[in-house]
Design a protein that fits this description.
Layout (H helix, E strand, L loop, with lengths): L7 E4 L4 E6 L2 E5 L23 H11 L17 E5 L6 H14 L8 E5 L11 H11 L11 H17 L5 E7 L2 H4 L10 E6 L9 E4 L5 H16 L5 H4 L1 H10 L4 H13 L5 H9 L1 H7 L1 E2 L2 E2 H9 L4 H9 L8 E2 H8 L3 H13 L4 E2 L5 E3 L2 H14 L1 H23 L17 H24 L3 H17 L3 H18 L2 H17 L3 H18 L2 H17 L3 H18 L2 H17 L3 H17 L3 H17 L3 H18 L2 H17 L3 H17 L3 H17 L3 H17 L3 H17 L3 H18 L2 H13 L8
Parallel strand pairs: 1-3, 4-7, 4-8, 5-6, 6-7
Antiparallel strand pairs: 2-3, 9-10, 11-13, 12-13
Helix pairs in contact: 1-2, 3-4, 6-8, 6-9, 8-10, 11-16, 13-15, 13-16, 14-15, 14-17, 17-18, 17-19, 18-19, 18-20, 19-20, 19-21, 20-21, 21-22, 21-23, 22-23, 23-24, 23-25, 24-25, 25-26, 25-27, 26-27, 27-28, 27-29, 28-29, 29-30, 29-31, 30-31, 31-32, 31-33, 32-33, 33-34, 33-35, 34-35
């Protein structure tokens, strides 16, 4: 005590920190060497991959504004960075790696690193801010007798000491790990503008005035690299079980869903059993109901990591968390979550945001959509099965009811005549299609969910409401799966009407996937059921479908009979729209039989009837067929007019695939009028559209027509390349008829190019195809070309 009565605590030298204890001063000498406590950062893991970009972003945040002034207390660009993410995603390892690299950079943190784990999610180990500050102050060089009691006094002293360190050129990096709330971290944050801090939390800590950094899971390649490198680090480079079995490695990475904790545990399981094949571990993790239990080691477990987050949820949050896995698709909307929980969308949105803050759900780029990490989903489902057995059936029913009603509303905008009644639930066709596009994975999965959970009516209704949309978007494999489920359910419950509708929808999708005989069988069975039940309108639709399938199977005589039956039935019951469908498809079959005048008449009749019904989409389709028939009759200008009308309508309806088909047909007519350059442009546009739509058949047709147009200009090299591409595509799709056509045109081009030996070989191959198909017209054409080439006895 001095003669004036003032209290002064001196720790050597003369650096005054400030008034902190009962009016006294604490004077601190900054140590010449960093103490062990100031170098207390955990060692970074030897294996660390897939995070380079994240590390660089953190280093950018840690860099002082002016490197030259960093040692003299220069200001900090981003004083506090808060890294958040799912439990086990690697937040601690990321900040440790970044901190270790930052400390090595000259002048960045000469004062060292303060590190503490607050165990914020563990009620047994949780560290209070007061205790954490006590540890920090000791590490900073203050003896215990000079550390005050109470949070506020410790906080003031701590911040003053950090500022003094920075002022003396000994800037410190503070790392605060495992924080559960902003309140827990705030007292430990520096305020001098020079000291930097890194904070990790499972929650998004938006109350810290910090730069927020979200950490996601690893992608597949980084996941496999982590598995491989971890195993090699533990067992040596000769342990190449991951590298030598890429299929198993990919499976393990997928089953661990990119979560570093799970991946490191998987690698540890292989490390502990050096004889165990990677494929065996992959097989063991396949079963969803035991996967979480297998992803554990004595010192760590995925389930235990999730437990610490789950136990902090309130009652409503936990209940919604447990119900979310009932949604069968990869993500869900706020409205769907509200139906699961039996609440309104505003409340569901609040709960989802709280779960997102805890990184137990992930907000998607589209606002109002959410997804769960695969392992979190399994964890939530386990709790749901244990805790909500009595609620899950009702919640599933509410969700399915939501999907059925919304899909039926959206379906009123899909492939309907202009005068059709639209649902007021959606403002426009654009909104309806956008909703269906977004929800499609959920909706197709919900059909199977309904069938599996005893909601037969919902499953059937949803399948029927989806059918036109899936066809519209050319999702035919999904359409087959959905229709097949609906068919099984309808047959099981004895629903004859549902059975016939499912068969009809199945037949449409089968036709589009070139299963023509199967499609014919489906439509024929549907027509039989409808004849028995007396539903003549839908019987006519089934007969039309049957005729289309028969025509595609090249059974044209039978197809014509089916279409004529359908047309007569529609005429008898006054169904003008149905008549249009039958006549349009009759035109297709007649044209294939080279009965062009009859085909043109049928197509024109379809155009008239669709126009009466204000069905713009089908009117455009009939105009396309009409244009083709006119071209067959040599009326090319009239054909061009029809195709351009058709293009305009498809442009209005946004049907790009149909635009591609019409572009191809327009090119044919343009080429016949000598406008070859315009034809080539149309063909190229058609090819691009069909390639994008993955319609290989029509892409091949475009190449074949492009080859003919290029041949007409004498550009034989480009023409042969186009024909070769067409032949390749048709062989890949097993389309023998079009393979023969493309080979024939290829041979013609080779002949005109003077490559006669090749032309003979190609035409003989074409002849073989036509002979196998029994195509008299194709045989006649090809034999004629071979005769011109001097071949009287083809090798085929």
């Amino acid at each position: 005590m001095s003669g004036t009565g003032e209290v002064s605590n001196v720790i050597s030298d003369s650096l005054i920190i400030g008034v902190v204890v009962q009016g006294g001063h604490v004077t601190l000498q900054v140590p010449a060497q960093i103490s062990p406590a100031m170098a207390g950062l955990p060692g970074p893991a030897a294996v660390f991959t897939g995070r380079d970009e994240h590390v660089e972003r953190l280093l950018d945040n840690l860099a002082p504004l002016d490197d030259g002034e960093a040692g003299a207390g220069g200001t900090q660009a981003v004083p506090v960075t808060a890294v958040s993410g799912l439990a086990g995603v690697g937040k601690t390892e990321l900040v440790v790696q970044a901190a270790a690299r930052a400390v090595k950079r000259s002048g960045w943190f000469p004062g060292g690193v303060l590190f503490t784990d607050l165990f914020g999610y563990d009620p047994m180990l949780g560290l209070s801010p007061e205790r954490a500050l006590d540890g920090f102050l000791r590490a900073l060089g203050l003896p215990s007798e000079h550390i005050p009691n109470g949070l506020q006094d410790r906080q003031r002293l701590y911040r003053s000491v950090l500022a003094a360190y920075a002022e003396k050129g000994r800037r410190v990096l503070v790392v605060i790990d495992n924080v559960s709330s902003a309140e827990q971290a705030r007292p430990l944050l520096p305020t001098d503008g020079a000291t930097a801090a890194l904070v990790t939390s499972r929650h998004t800590l938006d109350g810290l005035d910090a730069r927020l950094h979200d950490l996601d899971t690893l992608d597949e390649s980084a996941s496999i690299a982590l598995l491989d490198q971890t195993l090699r680090h533990a067992r040596g480079d000769r342990d190449a079980r991951i590298a030598e079995d890429p299929a198993a490695a990919t499976s393990i990475a997928h089953l661990c869903a990119g979560l570093p904790l799970a991946l490191r545990i998987a690698a540890a399981l292989l490390t502990a059993a050096p004889q165990r094949p990677a494929a065996d571990l992959a097989a063991a993790l396949e079963a969803e109901h035991t996967r979480l239990d297998k992803l554990r080691r004595p010192d760590r477990a995925v389930r235990a990591a999730f437990d610490l987050s789950y136990q902090l949820l309130d009652t409503d949050e936990a209940r919604l968390f447990r119900l979310l896995p009932l949604n069968p698709g990869p993500d869900l909307s706020t409205d769907a979550a509200a139906r699961l929980a039996g609440t309104d969308s505003d409340r569901a949105g609040e709960l989802l945001q709280h779960l997102a803050d805890a990184h137990l759900v992930e907000p998607q780029p589209t606002w109002g959509r959410w997804r769960m990490h695969d392992l979190v989903r399994l964890y939530a489902d386990d709790h749901g099965r244990a805790d909500d057995a009595d609620q899950r059936t009702a919640a599933t029913g509410r969700l399915l009811d939501h999907y059925v009603r919304a899909t039926e509303a959206a379906d009123t905008y899909v492939d309907r005549p202009a005068g059709a009644v639209r649902s007021p639930m959606l403002p426009s066709r654009e909104h309806a299609l956008a909703w269906l596009d977004t929800e499609r994975p959920n909706l197709t999965a919900a059909v199977a969910l309904a069938a599996a959970t005893g909601h037969a009516d919902s499953g059937i209704r949803l399948a029927f409401a989806l059918a036109d949309f899936l066809n519209w978007r050319r999702r035919f494999d999904e359409a087959i799966a959905v229709a097949s489920v609906a068919l099984d359910v309808a047959r099981t419950v004895g629903d004859r009407n549902g059975t016939s509708r499912a068969l009809h929808n199945l037949g449409i999708a089968q036709r589009e996937t070139r299963q023509f005989e199967e499609a014919a069988a489906s439509h024929r069975e549907a027509a039989g059921i409808l004849r028995e039940t007396g539903d003549q309108q839908r019987e006519a639709r089934a007969l039309t479908g049957l005729g289309v399938a028969l025509a595609q199977a090249r059974r044209f005589d039978e197809a014509v009979l089916a279409h004529e039956d359908a047309r007569a039935l529609c005429e008898r019951i006054g169904d003008r729209h149905g008549e249009g469908m039958a006549m349009n498809n009759l035109g297709i079959a007649l044209r294939e039989m080279r009965r062009f005048e009859e085909a043109a008449t049928a197509y024109n009749g379809a155009v008239v009837r669709y126009r009466e019904a204000e069905d713009r989409q089908r009117e455009a389709g009939a105009l396309t067929g009409y244009g083709l028939a006119l071209a067959d009759l040599g009326q090319f200008e009239e054909a061009i007019t029809a195709h351009r009308e058709s293009l305009a309508i498809f442009g209005e309806t946004g049907d790009r695939h149909a635009e591609g088909m019409v572009m191809n047909n327009l090119g044919i007519a343009l080429r016949q009028t000598g406008r070859t350059d315009e034809a080539i442009a149309a063909y190229r546009q058609a090819i691009d559209i069909h390639r994008t739509a993955h319609d290989r058949t029509r892409e091949g047709m475009g190449y074949n027509n492009l080859g003919k147009a290029l041949r007409q200009l004498g550009q034989f090299d480009q023409a042969t390349a186009a024909h070769h591409q067409a032949v390749t595509i048709f062989r890949e799709t097993a389309d023998r008829y079009r393979t023969g056509q493309a080979l024939y045109e290829f041979g013609v081009t080779l002949t005109e190019a003077g490559r006669l030996e090749q032309a003979v070989t190609v035409q003989e191959e074409a002849l073989t195809v036509f002979q196998e198909l029994g195509d008299a017209y194709g045989i006649e054409l090809t034999q004629g070309k071979l005769t011109e080439l001097g071949v009287t006895e083809p090798r085929s």
